[in-house]
Structure formats: C-alpha cells, structure tokens
Design goal:
Gln-tRNA-synth; 561 residues; 7-stranded mixed β-sheet; 13 helices; single chain
Length: 561
C-alpha cells in the first residue's frame, strides 16, 4: 500500500497535530530503547518498525538507545544481538546511545533533587518500603526517614555512591506524594545499591538509577520529541512528566510519552524472563533456537525481514491489546517466500520406485523451472534415472477416487518428467512397502510437445534420483506451545504447555543442485514447504530447517480436535 493511500495510525495523528500546532519538523526525533537483558522477540518488532518507520515517514533521526541500568541482568552479548536484529530488519539508527552514558548527569540531577528537598535517602528494608506504600484504595504512610535533613541526605547519598554500604541498606527516593491515587507517585525509588560490574562502566558505580528515573531523562538528554512505549507504561506517564519537570529548560525539546498496545502472539510467550527460563532449562538450544519467538530465532528458521515487517504492518498500531493468531505471521512469511524461494525437489520419507522399462544405467538431465513467480529465476537441470525416491504417503496399494497420487494400476506424472503407472510393490516382513515397480511412457516427457506428453493425469509427484540425491538432515519445527495462551493461567505453569513434538529430526534426500547451497539460503521443497540451510550445516553435511509448511495444517488439526 502506498504512503499516500494508507490511513494514518493514531500515533501519526498525534505527531501531525503537534506539527500543525507549531512544533518544528526539524526537532522531531524518535528512539528505540531496549534493555539489553535478553534477545529481541517478535513483540519488539512492532516497536522497532513503529519508531524507525516514523523516522522514515517524517525524515527524522531515530536513536538506538540501550536502557542499561541493571548490571545484574545485562550483557554485551545482548547488546550485540539487538544491533544485529535491528540492522537485519532493514533499519539504520542515527545515534547509538546508552543510558550508562548519562550516569553522571543523572547523579548530578539527583543531587539537585536532594538540595531542593525533593529526594531523600530511605534506610528501610525493601519489605518495609513495600508495606508502607499502601494499596490502590488506601494511601501510603511516610517513611520515618522522609524528613532527614538535606545535608544528611547528601552525605548518605555520596557514601552510597562511594560504596560504603551493603546492597539493600539504603535507597534514594523521590519525595512526591504518599497519598497519590497513582501508586507510582508514592515516593518512587531513584537509586539502589548494587555491587556488580556493569558491561560498560565496570565497577565505576556502586549505585544504579531505576528505569523510571533514567528513561525520561535520557529522552530529554537526547532531544527525543516523542517517546513511544507500550500500554503497561501508561500509569508511568505521570511520573515521567514529574521527573521531566525537575530538569527541563524552557528552550529545550520536552519529550512527550504516548502509549500503544502490545500485540500478543498466540502459542507464544514474549516475557524475557520466561524465554530465559526456556534457555536455561534446555527446553531450547539457545535464544536463537528456531522455535523461539526471538527475531534471531525467526531469522535462523528462515523468516525474512520483509515478512516480519509486513506482519507488523498488517496488525497495525492500536490502543487496545489483543492476541494475534500466529498463523498470520506464518501466512506473511509463506506469502513472501512464495515470491522469492527457488523450487527444488526433496523427499523426506522415502520409498524406492523402480521404473522397470527404463534403460539400465541411463541418466537424463531434465529441465526444471526455478520459480514460476519470478520470470528471471531461470531453469536448472535435475537427473532422472531408473531408480527414484518418492514419498511413502504418495503411494497406496488401494485407494478411493479422491486419492490423486500413485496407486496400483494408476498413473501419475513425475514432476518435469514422465507419466508412470504402478504395476506392483514389494513389502518387508512387517508389511511395510519397501519398493514400488512402475512402467513409464517414454513419449510422455514434460514439455516435449508430443501427444502423449499432453495427456492429462490427475496427480503430479515430486521425486529425486536415488543414485544422485544427497542425504540431508531435516529439522521439522512446530509450534513451541500447544496452547494459544500458555502464560495466561494462574493455576498452571506455562512450561506445562511445551509442545513435546516441537522438533522432529529426520533424514531425507534432496536433489544434487543443493550441494552448493550456502547457510541461510531458502528453498521451497515442492509440495512440502519452505526450508532453509541451518547454520550447523557443513559442506559435508547438509542440514535444513523447515520454516513453514505450504498450508496452515495446524489450523486444520485444531478444527478436528
């Protein structure tokens, strides 16, 4: 949809109204502010596309800022992964920023608050602070340390900074209103003591600012005009503005916080804490496991940046939260891969097929179209011989009229090849079919123009030449959770809904053209789905991940249940 024809979302309406009321377009600046305490997931994609999309729409800079205020949970690994994900999605940031860059300024502003009698050092335990906060219907009570003198607060705060106290011994709190109806305004904590090394500042600091104190002031330092966050921060807006009121200069840009709804995805969790639990308990192999809803996991599985951006654009920006069916995300990647993925042939559950009247030792190289959706994709050749592999479930000894694949006495066309007829089959002691004997019509070759080649048969099967096919490890990924909302139950743990069949590893056979495929290359295995070369693959060992099937089979399974 073109920029001119699509309707504006409510965030764009807010920005347009600000511009109409005199805000300078040159002062527009946005930011994407992740905390580096985990990998980005599909939920972050909406925020990334929103902020960077606004930057593109209004020709305004967008900062990538890491809100790195908790050294206990943050790591450089996460910083590197976040940068890689944003770049992979196709966006460029103007300035790379870190909240830790502003630690000194934040500290200086905290000193200013103390001197203005707007902050104090509280020496209560965290349990006592929580009790004294009150409830949503009952006001809180003042800390016994709330009226400490300015000098005592300054001395204690400096000693906190110098590392003279143990963790939990003191905190710095803003002095606002313990009877406020908004509990976040009841003397929120500004600083806590943490004797932990920071991934950027090492051990320079023994105190670390809280998120609410850091976030808005960082926006202000960076001249961010519109600070966009999800709905859970709506109650924080009053505190965001109070903190800004303490430092904003009249001629500087004052950030405006506005909230949009988080879009939850069915059969998925997006809590970093719970995703980390999956990693630590070895339910998955890491943050980039192809079953994970992380952007790196989706990338490894074979999703494309275009498909994720299209998904985000399709669900849009809203004011109310809802659950989006994961099948929409799968539809978006399926739609994009259909346009770009080369078609190849692979057999995942092979049974041997012998063409009894085909010349012994002969090999033909048949022409095959690479992508009917792309005229420039060209053609390749695939080997055809007497012994082939087809899928086990593409053959039945007896079948009803609706079975359009191969059955005894029946005919099908082999893709790009000949019409064959099943004559008989061989079984092992358990009754499993181990070989199918067929005959072929040598005049029925696809594209030859003969009368026989134009004859219509109802079924067309994919295949590979047994002598030429390459063995490959195939990883068949499915949804990680069996329930649409695995973390929505108070009486059950989300781990109870882990899908025990979320990964099946099999050995299949692929056509020899894939020998030169590179890690990350994506293909459509004809009639089977979309697959990409897994990063574990080597030149001697092909490994494929299933990105998505050709159809939404999960939905059909659920309908039956």
């Amino acid at each position: 949809m073109s920029e001119t024809s699509r309707s504006l979302n409510f965030i764009e309406h807010i920005i347009d109204e600000d511009l109409a009321n005199g805000f300078s377009k040159e002062k527009l600046r946005f930011r994407f502010p992740p905390e580096p305490n985990g990998y980005l997931h599909i939920g972050h994609a909406s925020s990334i596309c929103l902020n960077f999309g606004l930057g593109l729409r209004y020709d305004a800079p967008v900062n990538l800022r890491f809100d790195d205020t908790n050294p206990a949970k943050e790591e450089q690994e996460y910083v590197d992964a976040i940068k890689k994900d944003v770049e992979w999605l196709g966006f460029e940031w103007d300035t790379e920023c870190y909240a830790s860059d502003y630690f000194q300024q934040l500290y200086d502003w905290a000193i200013k608050l103390i001197k203005e009698n707007k902050a104090y050092v509280d020496s209560q335990s965290s349990e006592d602070v929580a009790k004294q906060k009150g409830t949503p219907t009952e006001p809180g009570t003042n800390s016994p340390f709330r009226e400490r003198s300015i000098d005592e607060n300054l001395n204690l705060f400096k000693a906190m900074k110098d590392g003279d106290f143990k963790e939990g011994q003191h905190v710095l709190r803003a002095k606002i209103d313990m009877s406020s109806s908004n509990m976040l305004m009841r003397d929120p904590i500004l600083y806590r003591i943490l004797h932990k090394a920071h991934h950027r500042t090492n051990t320079d600091w023994c105190i670390y600012p809280m998120y609410d104190w850091t976030h808005g002031e960082s926006d202000y330092i960076e001249n961010v005009s519109h600070s966009l966050c999800t709905l859970e921060f709506a109650m924080h807006r009053e505190l965001y503005d109070w903190f800004l009121n303490q430092v904003v200069e009249p001629n500087n840009v004052r950030p405006k916080q506005r909230e949009f709804a988080r879009r939850n995805l069915s059969h998925t969790i997006v809590s970093k804490r719970k995703l980390l639990q999956l990693v630590e308990q070895n339910v998955v192999t890491g943050w980039d496991d192809p079953r994970m809803p992380t952007i790196s996991g989706l990338r490894r599985r074979g999703y494309t940046p275009e498909s994720i951006r299209n998904f985000v654009d399709t669900i849009g920006i809203a004011k109310r939260e809802n659950v989006v069916d994961v099948s929409l995300l799968e539809f978006c990647v399926r739609e994009h891969l259909n346009k770009i993925a080369p078609r190849v042939m692979a057999v995942l559950d092979p049974v041997k097929l012998i063409i009894t009247n085909y010349p012994e030792g002969e090999v033909e190289w048949l022409e095959a179209e690479n992508n009917p959706e792309d005229d420039s994709a060209g053609y390749r050749t695939v080997p055809f011989s007497k012994e082939l592999y087809i899928e086990q479930d593409d053959f039945k000894e007896e079948a009803n009229r609706k079975f359009f694949r191969l059955k005894l006495g029946g005919e099908v066309r082999l893709k790009n090849g000949y019409i064959i007829k099943a004559e008989r089959c061989t079984k092992d002691a358990a009754g499993t079919i181990t070989e199918i004997q067929c005959t072929y019509d040598p005049k029925s070759k696809s594209g030859s123009g003969t009368e026989e080649s134009l004859r219509k048969v109802k079924g067309t099967l994919h295949w590979v030449s047994a002598a030429h096919a390459l063995p490959a490890e195939i990883r068949l990924y499915d949804r990680l959770f069996t329930d649409a909302t695995p973390d929505a139950y108070k009486e059950k743990d989300f781990m109870d809904f882990v899908n025990p069949n979320s990964l099946e590893i099999i050995t299949g056979y692929v056509e020899p053209s894939l020998k030169e495929a590179q890690i990350g290359d994506i293909f459509q295995f004809q009639r089977l789905g979309y697959f990409n070369i897994e990063k574990d693959a080597t030149p001697e060992r092909l490994v494929f991940n299933r990105t998505v099937g050709l159809r939404d089979t999960w939905g059909k399974i659920q309908e039956k249940e």
